[in-house]
Amino acid sequence: MAPTYKIYVVGGAVRDALMGLSVKDRDYVVVGATPEQMKAAGFIAVGKDFPVFLHPTTHEEYALARTERKTAPGYTGFAFHAAPDVTLEQDLQRRDLTINAIAQDIDGTLIDPCGGQADIKNKVFRHVSLAFAEDPVRILRLARFAARFTDFSVAPQTATLMHQMVESGEVDALVSERVWQEIARGLMEARPSRMFAVLRECGALKRLMPELDGLLDQVIDTQSHASAVAAEKIMSEIDGAAHLEASLPIRFSVITYHLANEQLAIDLCQRLKLPNDVKELAILAARECVAVHAAAEMSADAIVKLLERCDAFRKSDRFADLLKLHELIHQTSNKNKLPSIELLLASLTSAKAINAGQIAAAVAIDHPQNPTHHIAAAVHAARVSAVQTLLDRR
Fold first, then answer.
1. The pLDDT of residue 334
2. Which of 151, 162, 328, 388 is the 20 to 30 A CA-CA neighbour of 301?
């Protein structure tokens, strides 16, 4: 007997196809089915909060049509109802934006009860219903979409609704991991600056990343940063990192570089609970932003101390990323290369060429009672000598 339920492609796959973009992943909604029917057809149940199944062959996700109602603050405070009598239109009504609320039948017919096709044509982000306000993650998602679809604008009614969500405290219920997940995805899009602009316009950036919001509120001119840096320049550098296809740690570290304050960078990283690779480079960028630029004027001893502070001898890849960050920021407003970059790379190579093991063995013989301090001093001195030789040749 043929199945009584119907399957539709929904969401991003339909949207991207209509926009002429490549479709990477497809999501499906199943109307008129029970969990038992899905399992009998070979689908594998994976959903915890509501029935989601993996196709036995393709492993694509198939979700039963469902409705939802708000039960508590935050993005987890929902009760879901999935049953055979839930219609496709009801399922689409619970989605965030009209451009994501279009379904496609197996024969190619589009079901678009919310006007998503018109909004794609007019390049507008518009909420489907007032239920948008019940889930603060939707603010983050819309901001991320703005970074991807760079010629779309936010509908005025949606912008107002987002501002009201922030004012009501709904955004404050977001957990750090979820915030970072969306911020990280937005940073890897074509124009990350648009994500921050959307968050800033509705007031969410001040709640989620107050350090960045404060940075954009004013022109920086402190002792730790010799030149004034406008907010527009910071955003253009973030977009520049995206244009150069820089890694996620480098893209995020553009922000902390301009904070130029190690403690502010630490606070931001801790609040967002960043992964170690992003956090380490971000804090390093804030702490050493001036020193790296000034390296060309430093003594051999100061250069080696900078390399040691950055743990460049053990984590040379991370140090290379720090230099890439500085070069990227420098080249945003200067065509010439930053002199300190080449010098620091050459200094690291020269300093790493010394035989630290041989030095340690010799010092341990001369100072058997307390060799650690003496070894560190001797290795440092050898590194300084190697870098001085390099400087003398320049």
1. 75
2. 328
The range of the structural domain enclosing residue 378 comes to 353-393
Domain presence at residue 304 = no
- Predicted pLDDT of residue 223: 45
Reported in sequence order, the residue ranges of 43-134 that DSSP labels E, i.e. its strands, are 44-45, 52-54, 61-64, 66-70, 78-82, 103-104, 110-111, 124-125
Neighbouring residues of 360: CB distance < 8 A, sequence distance ≥ 6: 371, 375, 378, 379
Residue 280 located in a structural domain: no
* Section 199-216 average pLDDT: 95
Inside any domain, residue 181: yes
- Angle of helix 156-167 relative to helix 137-148, nearest 10 degrees? 140
Residue 1 shares a structural domain with residue 115:
yes
31 plus 78 within the same structural domain? yes
The answer to which of 76-90, 111-125, 166-180 has the lowest mean pLDDT is: 76-90
Query: Phi then psi for 27, rounded to 5 degrees?
Result: -110, 145
One domain, residues 85 and 97: yes
Q: What is the mean pLDDT of the chain?
A: 90
Q: Are residues 106 and 200 in the same domain?
A: no
| Tokens at 30, concatenated | 């199943």
Structure-token pair, residue 177: 């991991």
For 222-249, the pLDDT digits (tens) are 444 433 457 888 999 999 999 999 999 9
Q: What CATH number is associated with residue 193? A: 1.10.110.30
Q: Do the domain assignments include residue 92? A: yes
Residue 75 sits in the same domain as residue 136: no
Give residue 337's identity as a one-letter amino acid code: K
- State the total domains in the chain: 3
Residue 373: per-residue pLDDT = 75
Asked if residue 62 and residue 87 are part of one domain, the reply reads yes
Whether 114 and 127 map to the same domain: the answer is no
Q: Are residues 128 and 159 in the same domain?
A: yes
Q: Report DSSP letters for 121-190, one per residue.
A: HHTEE-BSSGGGGG-THHHHHHHHHHHHSTT-EE-HHHHHHHHHHHHTTGGGG--HHHHHHHHHHHHTSS
Residue 359's Cβ-count burial label (10 Å; 0-12, 13-18, 19+) is middle
pLDDT score of 218: 64
Please give the pLDDT value at position 275. 97
Q: Contact, 384 vs 306, CB < 8 A?
A: no
Q: Could you give phi then psi for residue 53, rounded to 5 degrees?
A: -130, 150
